[in-house]
Amino acid sequence: MNCAFHFCFSSSKSRSFTPRALSLSAASISGDTGVIHVVEKEEDLNWVLADGPHPPYMILLDGNLFNRKVLMQLKGTSRVSGLAVSIAKPNPPQGFSPGLKCPNDGFGVYSKDYGPQYAHCNTTVWNPVGSGLSYEDFDFPIFLLEDANETQVIKQCYQDHNVPRDGSGPEYPLCAMQLFSHMHAVTSTVTCMRRNSIQNTFSINPETVCDPLLDYNVWSTLQPINSSGKVDREQEVIIVATRIDSHSFFWNIAPGAESAVSSFVTHLAAAEALHKASDVHSLQRNVMFTFFQGETFDYIGSSRMVYDMEKDKFPLRLDNIHSFVELNQVALRNGSVLWMHTDPVSWMNESVQTQVRNLLDILSNSSVGANVTLQEAGYSQPLPPSSFQRFLRARHIPGVVLTDHQAAFQNRYYQSMYDTPENIRMQYPEGLSPEETLEYVTDTAKSLAEVATVVARALYRLAGGANNTSAIQADPKTVTRMLYGFLIKMNNSWFQSIIKPDLKGILGDVPQHYVAVSSPVNTTYLVHYVLANLTGTVVNLTKEECLNPDKTPNAEKELYDYAWVQGSLDPNSTTRVPYCVRSTVRLSKALSPAFELRQWGSTEYSTWTESRWKEIRARIFLVASKELEIITLVVGIAILVFSLLATHFINAKADVLFSIPRDPGAVAY
Q1: pTM of the model
Q2: Between 20 and 30 A from 210 (CA), which of 93, 343, 416, 614?
Q3: CA–CA dist 185, 196 (Å, integer)
Q4: Is 123 helix (H, G, I), strand (E, B) or coil?
């Protein structure tokens, strides 16, 4: 049987002075093989680690036992050749997070030089259920089984052949499994990037062994700016930010419902609501909506944008930033409370304190009359892990991070495969069609729309708006569509209608939000086109004019981006009605500066890489006993020797054995 698995990939980096590995599960180039043993309770491990007579074992592990305690017992023993994990259903009630207790530790703003008392989560442990499994090095492959039918096939094979009888080992033949997931990269980013460099320098056909994690940040502005020029130094811009990537222990399994999707969906809804205000183009300050990629991996996207601003490679400078508002995890609020986090170190600066105080007051006042209550987390507590920290490393900027937690995360499944729609309480009535589900407004959508409304109204005030803000209202219907598309099914009618015709292939069934090494990834594309759809304008241009704005009079291509999108299906046919969208949405590179600077061991910038591989597969089969294998080998050798001797004898006596007898009636004269 060949199974479809999600595997634990090799992704490595150098951190501080010690090379670390993310989800590093080494595998033999020819595959790893072992006798299957099902582990459904901790006592079952005794057979694998000590009692079982047929090592090495390939373990089928119940998802509820996939934790640090169990994996540390398996790590380092030669009696385990691999691990297949069946996903736990329902989600583990105790929580599960393979990330660190202090996410992105060492790459935020707090260090021995800036707020040392807050460094390394000394004051607040943000992710208390974090096990750090994603940062351990395992010398055997680890696969995830999501399909219950495949899990049952393996269990049935185990029950038929491998179940111990009365405490003694089962008889042959035994059911075995082989996993193929050989990774080309080794040790660390420094090692693999050096090998890449040597290959590229001296080899005619270089073979790359690892690639940097990279993608694109998505950004747009309330008022158009020249994307190829520079904003005037006097122009003040408010940055609204969130991250759009997530992660789990397993490659390409990154639902990120609470850790990423809840915040960037709220951000998108706030952008739409603010753009609908009548006087946005006359506001004193501009607003920049920013969606960072790669933030899970030591702030790749935000550190790159700060770097580009410092090097004059971005339209904005750090000096243009008036204030910073970040949406973090916002879906799991206790009651109606949303917490406002500020930096206690910059708070000591009187001028920054005044601006932060004004920012907090505007946010609090914007929640009056809404079903959201904003409260201050306190000045003695540091900022939670956030993109804002990378901007603070560059300069003191007034800013606030909005979260649903005052201290430790409410999210018990941070950076795991269990951070699913169920984690943020998304529920639908039974019997709905896909189209009805897309349009059904959930309680979660209503709740996030309320947060988006408060944020949009606050941004309006921060930008200098003086009119009544009651008309600024986020649309729960838009929010529910986005939640469905980004968490349940990307290939839906709304997403189909707002993307370019040549991008239909990005609409996979199961949404994932891993940053990857090939870019842009699906999430980046979709955030780009959703933002353009919600904040842009439909313009009366032909396809030719839309695709070539340089040749179109008054297109102002330096200020706007143009996209020819598929449009919705015509009600009376199967054809679509395409149209042209003009927006201020842009992409900027989200590649760590460490790779441009060739500082592969940097402690200033992220240095995450992903290993390359060629073949990922698995199979189960029956194996015979060693004795039978030896007997088969000996008999085979004996037959071979006998065949060689017989061939030699026949060849030597060929003239006798194969001579043609004379005809007795023949007479010679």
Answers
A1: 0.91
A2: 416
A3: 10
A4: coil
